[in-house]
Amino acid sequence: MNFFSKLYYRLRKMWKAIQLYLVIAGPGIVVMVADNDAGGITTYAATGAKYGYHLIWFLLLLIPAAYYVQEMTVRLGAVTKRGLAEAIFDGFGATWGWFSLVDLMLVNWLTLVTEFIGMTAALHIFGVPPWLTVTGVVLLMAIIVLNGRYWTWEKIALLFCALNLVYIPGAFMVNPSVSDILQDGLIPNFHGGFNGQLFFFLMANIGTTIAPWMLFFQQSAVVDKGMQEKDIPWGKFDTLLGSALTVVVAIFIVIVTGTTLNGVDIESAGQAAEQLMQTDRYVGTFMAIGLFDAGLLGAICISLASSWAFGEIFGWAHSLNQNIKQAPWFYASYFFTLITSGLVVLIPGAPLVLITLFVQVIAVTLLPAALVFLILLLNDRATMGDYRNGVWQNLIGGGIVVAIVVLSSLYGISVMFPNLFQ
Amino acid sequence: MRASLKRLLRKIGEINERYREPRIAMSRVVRAALQFLRVYLLFLVCLMVYKFILLLN
User: Fold this and answer.
1) What is the structure's pLDDT at B35?
2) Confidence (pTM)
3) Residue A373 sits in a domain of what CATH number?
4) Is there a domain that residue A370 lies in?
5) Distance (Å, rounded) from C-alpha A257 to C-alpha A291?
6) Could you tell me where the DSSP H helices lie in A25-55?
7) Cβ separation of A97 and B19 shorter than 8 Å?
8) In this complex, do B37 and A408 lie within 8 Å of one another by their Cβ atoms?
9) Among the listed ranges A42-56, A217-231, A262-276, which one has the minimum average pLDDT value?
């Protein structure tokens, strides 16, 4: 009897913990899965086709990197109750603030263009013309955000996150060799040697796993959700789960293209899906659906990150809990970035694939600027108190900044001296 | 249009005034390092844009 009462008590406690998590869950998972956006899917598909399973170990390293970067935004948001843009303005003054804000707007807008590129490419496979995709997506996103509740928006976003898992059955359907994956993928190696192309791919993979918009988005989402200091452990768990999930999905995409398209020059995820259609109709369809979902989820989050940041700085009402009458400028900036980036895709002859890959690289190049501010803010004893960074957190954060700057520099050198790394 | 632009400029002026003094004190070395990082990152972005144009042609 004593055993059963203890078991009942423990199960009840566990169920309460799960219920509590389900209330807090959201920002971490949404931001991390949305990180596998259209540009991300293209990058992973191209990585698998180019390097097979050889860069899987590198993707695994990105789980702790993404977690340590993003969990800082949870602490900062929950403690200060303000977004990162406002925190930078307040902490470092207007000059640095404007630099960060303009940097964020530019990278967000470019990334949003890549989301539309991905979505139009995905639906093009099913015969949907680009203009119809752009119009449909803008209307769908209007319906999602105009319901006037953060909670509803978050649950819809979580539904799209679940769709992102479509790549997992896709990978099983192509029958990859597990021994090859373990042998080639888990032992660190630089297949093909050090060259500009490798630096480019490594940077693009970092750029799609940790991006500037994610820092701003998660912190603003934590604030909009109303998370408190006591919720920080759950927020961190949410972020860890999201980090693991995003990299697992990325690895499955690499396995799909590494198995079926290894050695084929893939320029985009849309092209990968079209080629996969010829070998296995279902895997190709999964790839296309996953690409559209990724683009949509990315677009939902990135456009919000910009609007939140603008609202914080200009003092406009900037919450999803407010309707269009209460927060007109918030929604105006949201739709402005959305529509203008959608229109770019409709320009005839625009180099869409090249834009997608370069946006990832430019995003990662500009990431250290935002990351340095975040680390400095997390070391502010007066604001953060017991929640400030410890030595290890600073070392990891600093290490990520240095690694990104070194990789960006190597890529820069390879651009200036193309024969140096051959 | 003109009035909106004026309002926007006034708002930017207000923001600049509000955040004129940084709350977090930075030593001269930290400030110089941040400045260097900003210039260096912009230089790298310019290089990437150059590469993009090269590939486009």
Assistant:
1) 83
2) 0.81
3) 1.20.1740.10
4) yes
5) 14
6) 27-34, 38-51
7) yes
8) no
9) A262-276
Structural domain count, chain A: 1
Residues for chain A: how many in total? 422
A124-139: pLDDT as tens digits: 888 889 899 999 998 9
Q: Which of A11, A91, A17, A65 is nearest to A379 (CA)?
A: A91
At A244, list the tokens: 């693991």
Q: Is the dihedral angle over the CA atoms B45, B50, B54, B57 positive or is it negative?
A: positive
Q: Which residues of B touch A412 (CB under 8 A)?
A: 43-44, 47-48
Token pair for A167? 């790549």
State which residues form the domain around A83: 29-416
A366–B48 C-beta distance less than 8 A? no
The whole domain housing B46 covers: 2-56
Query: Three-state DSSP class for A420?
Result: coil
Give the separation between CA A27 and CA A22, rounded to whole angstroms.
Answer: 11
Q: What is the pLDDT of residue A122?
A: 87
DSSP A214-277: HHHHHHHHHHHHT--GGGHHHHHHHHHHHHHHHHHHHHHHHHHHHHHSTTS----HHHHHHHHH
Position A422 pLDDT exceeds 60: no
What distance in Å separates residue A91's CA from the closest CA in chain B? 5
Q: Would you call A369 and B26 a contact, using CB atoms and an 8 Å cutoff?
A: no
pLDDT value, residue A75: 92
**A93: nearest CB among B20, B44, B52:** B20
Whose structure tokens read 């079926």?
Answer: A260
**Per-residue tokens: A21:** 């998590």
Which of A156, A105, A136 lies closest to A342, judged by CA?
A: A136
Instruction: Tell me the residue type at A388.
Output: R
Shortest distance, CA B38 to any CA of chain A (angstroms):
7
B9 in contact with A, Cβ within 8 Å: no
**Above 80 in pLDDT, residue A47?**
yes
Query: Nearest by CB to B45, which of A91, A366, A405?
Result: A366
Find out whether A52 and A133 touch, Cβ atoms under 8 Å: no
Q: Tell me if A289 is assigned to some domain.
A: yes
Q: Select the more confidently predicted residue: A415 or A349.
A: A349
Collect all residues of chain B within an 8 Å Cβ-Cβ radius of residue A358: 48, 51-52
Span A110-133, average pLDDT: 88
